[in-house]
Amino acid sequence: MHGEEIGHLLKQERGQFLEFLSAYEFRRNDSRKRRDEDLARDIVRLLSGLANADGGTLLVGVEPDKSVTGVPHEAHELQNLIQAPQTLLTPPLTAASERIHLGNLLLLKFEVPSALDVHRVSGGRSYYRIAGETPSLPAEQIQNLKEAKRGVVYERQQPTGAAWSDLDPDAVELFSSKIADPRGAQAALAHSYHLLDSSRAEPAPNMAALLLFGKDPTRWHPRCGIDFVKYDGPERRHGTALNVVKRIRFETPLARLIDEAVGRIKEHIRERTVLHDLFFRERLEYPSFAWQEALVNAVAHRDYSFAGASIEIWMFDDRIEVRSPGLPPPPVTLEQLKQHRSIHFSRNPLIVRVLADLGYLREMGEGVPRMFQEMEHHGLRPPEFSTEGFMFVVTLRNTPVYDEDTLRWLNQFRPADINFRQRRLLAFAYCHGKTFSTAEYERIAEVDRDIAYREIRALIKSGIVAPLKPKSRSYRIIEKL
After folding, report:
1. How far is CA 399 from the centre of its chain?
2. What 3-state class would DSSP assign to 425?
3. What is the DSSP letter of 241?
4. Which of the ends of the chain has fewer CB neighbours closer than 10 A, N or C?
5. How far apart are CA 229 and CA 246, in angstroms?
C-alpha cells in the first residue's frame, strides 16, 4: 500500500497542499546528505507554512523533478527530524508523521491540517503557503492572520449525532474516484482532509464534511445553498411592482452545488447583439470565467457561521451581483481586491481543499486578477467589490467600455505584455489621435510620475510606443495590426 500511496502523491504537482523536499545537497558532481539541523529547519518552515494556510502534505526524500532519493539519515537523526515541528516551532505543531520504506529507500511523510494558531520558527519568522511558494510574513500580516484564524472554527465543529451514514455515498464516491487515493475514501477524508473523527467506533463527520457531502446539508445548516433571482430591469421592486422573472434555490451538497448552479444560471446569460458607438457585436453578457469565479469564491469563502443567510445571485438587465454572507477576513481588504492583488486566505480551509481537488479552485490567489483580465479583454468594466451590512458583494456589469475597433486592437496584447493601467492608457490614446503624454498617463492610470515613467519605458522597450521627439514627454503608438 505504501508504494501505491507514494505513487499517488508523485502523480500530483507540488502546490498549495503538497510539497517535496530533498534530504541531499548537491555540489558540482558530488552529493551528500544534508545536516539534520538544516533539513529540520526546512521541514518546519514548510510544515508551518502549510499549517498557517490550508494544511497539506510534505514528502521528504524526493527531488524537485520527483525522483525518489530517500532520507539517508541515522536513527537518532530521523527522530530529530520527526520531532522538529514540536521542538522548533512556537507554539509546537502536531504533525502526523510516517516512515515509508520504498525498496531500499526511506521516506518521511508529514501531514498537517490548517492550524488555529499561527506557528513561527522559534526565534524566527512565520511562513504562509501560497500556491507553490512559502514566503515569510511581514509583522502586520501575522497579526491580521491571527485575528482571522479566530473565525475558522465553524467548519471543524462536530455536530451532535452526526455519523458516517449521514454522508451521501454517491457524493463521497465521486470525490474518492476523483482523488484516486489508494487508502480509500474513509481513510482519505479522515487523515488527509481532516473531515472525520476516526477515533470513534463509527467515524463522525465534522461540519465541513456534512456541508460538502451530506445527504441533507440543510439539516445541519438551513441556508448553505444558493438563491438565484432574475429581475426585469435594473433594480429590485416590491409589492405590486414586483419584478422577479425567475427564482431558483439550490440546496445540494457543496461538492455538487457549483456544477448544478452554474449549469442552470448559464441558461440566463444571454448572447445578444449590442449596438455601441455604431458597432454591432454579438457576445455573452459576461465572460464565463468572471461570473463563475465569483460564484466559486462565494461557495468556498462565505462565512458559514451566518446560518440564517444563503449566497444570493441577483441578475439585472445591466449587471449580475454575487452576494456572499461574511465580510472579507482581516488579511484580505477591499482595497487589495480593487488593486488586482494576488492574495489568499481561506476562511474555510477544509472546504477549500476539497473544492480545489475537485478542480474548482486552481491557482490560489490568482482568481481575482484573472477576473479583471477577462472583463478587460471583453471590453467590459472591471469587477466591483463592496460590502452591504454583513454581505460581501461582487458586481459585474455588462456595459461595454470600448467600441469594437478599439477592443480588437487592444486584444492583440496579451495580459503578459501589458498591465491593466497600460491597457487603459493605450485604449485612451488609440481613440485620441494615437498619442499621449506623461501627464495623461498619470491622470488616466491614477499613478504618480515615477510609476508612469517606469511603465511608459516598459511600453517603449516592448516596441508598443515611441517618443514623439528625443527626450520628449509625449509619445505615439507604434501602429500594429
Report:
1. 27
2. helix
3. G
4. C
5. 6
3-class secondary-structure state, position 347: coil
List the one residue out of 181, 229, 228, 188 whose CA is nearest residue 212. 188
pLDDT score at 1: 52
Plot region of 463 (φ>0 → left; ψ -120 to 50 → alpha; else → beta): left
DSSP per residue over 151-208, as a string?
T--GGG---TT--GGGB-HHHHHHHHHHHT-TT-HHHHHHHTS--EETTSSS-EE-HH
141 Cβ contact partners less than 8 Å away, ≥ 6 residues apart: 128, 331
- Amino acid present at 381: R
Query: Domains (ranges, CATH) in the chain?
Result: 2-142 (3.30.950.30), 156-219 (no CATH), 226-348+355-397 (3.30.565.60), 404-477 (1.10.10.10)
Rg (CA), the chain: 26
Indicate the burial class of 185 (C-beta count within 10 angstroms; 0-12, 13-18, 19 or more).
buried
Question: Per residue in 42-71, pLDDT tens?
Answer: 999 999 999 999 999 999 999 988 999 999
How far apart (Å, rounded) are the C-alpha atoms in residues 214 and 351? 13
C-alpha 151/C-alpha 403 separation (Å) is: 46
Instruction: Please name the residues in contact with 243: beta carbons below 8 A apart, sequence gap of 6 or more.
Output: 231, 232, 233, 236, 237
Q: Nine-digit cell at 101?
A: 520504506
User: Taking all residues of the chain, what is their mean pLDDT, rounded to a whole number?
Assistant: 88
Q: Helix crossing, 420-430 with 449-461: angle to 10°?
A: 80
The C-alpha cell at 313 is 445571485
Cα–Cα separations (whole angstroms), residue 419 to 16, 339, 340, 384? 26, 11, 10, 18
Q: How confident is the model at residue 282 (pLDDT cuts 50, 70, 90)?
A: low
